[in-house]
Amino acid sequence: MVDKLNRREFLSATAVAGAAMLIDACKSDSSDQKAVVKKSSLNNINVALIGYGEEGKVLLEAFLNIEGVKLVALCDIWEYHRGEGERYLKKLGNEVRSYENYEDLLAKEKDLQAVLIATPDFWHAPMTNTCLKAGLHVYCEKMMSNTIDGARSMVKTMRDTGKLLQIGHQRRSNPRYLFTLNRLLHEAQFCGKLTAIQGQWNRAVKEDFGWPKKYEISQTMLAKYGYKDMHQFRNWRWFKGLGGGPLSDLGAHQIDIFNWWMGKTPKSVMASGGLDYYKNHDWYDNAMVIYEYPVEQAVARAFYQVQTTTSAGGGYYEQFMGDDGTIRMSEDPAICAIYREARATAVSWDDLTQKGYVKAKPLAADTAKVDVRETAALAEYEIPVFFNKPPHQPHLENFFNAIRGTAKLNCPADEAFTSEYVIHKANEAVAAEKKISISDEEVRA
Amino acid sequence: MAEIHPFNHRAMATHFEVRIADQEKTYAAQAAQASFDLLDKSESQLSRFRPNSDVSQLARLAPGERLRVGEPAFACLQIAKQMEAATRRAFCPTPAALQSQPTLPEWELFPAELSVLCVSGRLEFDLGAIGKGFALDRMAELLREWECPAFLLVSGGSSILTGDPPPEAQGWSCGLGDDDSPHRIYLSNASLSGSGLAVKGAHILDPRTGEPALRQARAWILADTAAESDALSTACMVLEEEELTEVLAQNNSWLAFLDTEEGPRAIGNRAVPVRA
User: Of the candidates B33, B65, B113, which has its C-beta nearest A206's C-beta?
Assistant: First the structure.
């Protein structure tokens, strides 16, 4: 079912011409994406959440807003997280059965249709493959896996079982991203000829995650689940064999947007990075990457940087730059921006405003008054799409709608694999200290 | 006296501090970091300056619409509603609404599904007068879970929340007023918040009139939780003394100190803590 739109979701859009078209362009499951499948009887989808750490909590919050789905089971190896989840859900009148081990969960839960997986990366492939083979549809957080082979196996299992596998690149269902891609970048050709891309996610130094002493997991159990010790369990993102470091943890979202918006994958990657600050991690704590995207007998270069030692540089975003204009996108609407070059005269701001593709930032409320002072700044424009939901909700809705047969997945595993591959290649380029070519064939699962 | 480990963090447009006593330093640092992570999460849910926050989403509701929010935002709004009633709207979570709307917006809470209904007007929540205190309460819960019961939490210098005292101390020495105030009390497992005109001028609006509130030059509230003390100290700026006395009489854990030339004067049924 197409998501019911909140009256104020498209407040700006409805004030302009072509509002119906705009609203369609914003939907996570727009009409041209819908599969022609008869509506199934899956009005109530029973779901299990595997992994109730930081990301699991984010997914649960978004999940709880969605109608027609019910969380029936929760799994986490850590009693501390499990207890937290149970208590929270009980408070909401949503009691769940909880499990330490996902295989026990699968053995006992006989009325499940789907699972959400938000565990450390190295568990994604074995869990996803097992769940798909058990006949369940899977929403798995990114990265797909800590290895290319792991990710490839997930695509294969998805194809073999015919079950759905959505990867958690949630921006692919974000109405603002969809609108800007479809209307501004493609239809209005706002950027003109794309010549460069830039993205980043910089974070300040912070203490590694600790744990309350009384909830320390026994060494035997840690070893059973693949961790050397409690510090590694809590900080798996920075350890080889468990996660993929900051390029995979933070960069994955944005590098996926590079591929999605360019509609292609890069032909090469070069990168530099290192473990220069933290002494007790395996993975690089900083990296600068350049991808080369082939465009009309030329190259558009995409620069991406991730820093875990400074928050400088204006937050996290992806910026698409062309000879006519630039679009800066972010999950944080406050960071989004659009700029036009002086040479871009073919389509005027007024035309774009009329079509509802951009909105002028509000000027003085009282038009009967005017103030005279130094020369005023140029009128500013913004992307006219807001949605009143947590950022992960549209992507989860898309997943459940796909299960019901009323939508196609916005980020199926085979599509996500292409991003997965080039992210792993960036890590490889840092290690090799050289430019690595990427062929069109190898990037497909 | 055992060593006290101090940690700092910026959030909610102010400065937060966690001091932990009677713990090994690395463990204290990790516990403090976990509490700051929780604080950052609270800010992302409660801030009206974050377009994706629960509070910003509520501001976009039309009358008749309902939105499910996260548990922390809901819990904070629940306390805000209780404090609004207890203070006869001298504390109000939509304090600036009268500047842009003819009447204060109305809203209802539905605990079973953690949802908020916009009954009328625009829900322009500004939780600045309760959110920091609420965050301190949640941070304190976390520190106790981490078995760090001897702590002092500070938010912007205007609210503190104390846990157990440091070993061999009677309590955390807390001053009423400027740095090194001579008017000091020992606190443990209690919260103290101050409001006044000295630092930011007449920044507190009387939600009932929309005008700046000018009842007290400075006031402090002692309470069991920081959300209560934070909200009540703001209400002190709005209430006349007689009304304030009636408000405080509802709850024996509340105590106000009003600034006078002779020093802070206590009002309320709670016993005045030992002077430090």
Answer: B33
- Flag whether A90 is in a domain: yes
Split into its structural domains, chain A has a count of 2
**Within-domain flag for A357:** yes
Residue A129 placed within a domain:
yes
CB atoms inside a 10 Å sphere around CB A198: 18
Question: A75 and A219: one domain?
Answer: no
* B99-103 own/partner pairs: CB under 8 Å, 24+ apart: B99/B205, B99/B210, B100/B124
The answer to whether the CB atoms of B114 and A92 lie below 8 A apart is yes
Residues 6+ apart with CB under 8 A from A389: A62, A65, B57
Domain that holds residue A198: 176-388+420-437
Residue with more model confidence, A312 or A119: A119
Q: Do B60 and A209 touch (CB under 8 A)?
A: no
A8, A88, A210 member nearest B30 (Cβ): A210
- Same domain, yes or no, for A189 and A308? yes
Q: Which of A327, A358, A342, A324 is nearest to A197 (CA)?
A: A327
CB B131 within 8 A of CB B110: no
Give the phi and the psi of residue B58 in degrees, each rounded to 5: -65, -35
Whole-angstrom Cα distance, residue B128 to residue B93? 8
Q: Is A361 on the interface with B (CB under 8 A)?
A: no
Min Cα–Cα distance to chain B from A31, Å:
26
> Chain B interface residues facing chain A, Cβ-Cβ under 8 Å?
27, 29-34, 50-52, 57, 60-62, 65, 67-68, 70-71, 112-114, 145-147
Distance, CA of B33 to CA of B7 (rounded, Å)? 8
Regarding whether A356 and A426 lie in a shared domain, the answer is yes
A208 touches chain B (CB under 8 A): yes
Looking at residue A37, what is its pLDDT?
A: 34
Distance CA A343, CA A324 (A): 7
How far is Cα A187 from Cα A357, in angstroms, rounded to an integer? 10
Q: What are the distances in angstroms from CA B89 to CA B56, B191, B199, B231, B244?
A: 22, 22, 24, 11, 12
| A267-317 confidence digits (pLDDT tens) | 999 999 999 999 999 999 999 999 999 998 899 999 999 999 999 888 899
**CATH number for A374:** 3.30.360.10
Mutate to test the interface with A, among B56, B124, B146, B151 (most CBs of A within 10 A): B146
The pLDDT tens digits of the residues spanning A78-96 come to 999 999 999 999 988 899 9
Residue A430 lies in a domain: yes
Q: What is the pLDDT of residue B210?
A: 78
Look up tokens 């070519």; give the residue. A437
pTM recorded for the entire structure: 0.89
Q: Do A165 and A183 fall within a single domain?
A: no
- Cis before residue A288, ω within 30 degrees of 0? no
Diameter over CA atoms, chain B: 58
CA distances from A114 to A154, A311, A343, B161, B184 (A): 16, 37, 51, 44, 59
A216 with A342, same domain? yes
Residues A99 and A145 in one domain: yes
Question: Do A376 and A431 fall within a single domain?
Answer: yes
A223 and A120 share one domain:
no
What pLDDT, on a 0 to 100 scale, did the predictor assign at position A378?
58
Q: Given CB atoms, is A207 within the 8 Å cutoff of chain B?
A: yes
Q: Cβ(A81)–Cβ(A118) under 8 Å?
A: no
Of B52, B71, B113, the CB nearest to A88: B71
Percent of chain A with pLDDT over 70: 87
**Gap between the Cα atoms of A363 and A12, Å rounded:** 15
The shortest CB-CB distance from A7 to any of B29, B33, B65 is to: B65
CATH number for the domain harbouring residue A44: 3.40.50.720
Query: Dihedral of CA A399/A400/A402/A403: which sign?
Result: positive
Instruction: Classify B179 as helix, strand or coil.
Output: coil
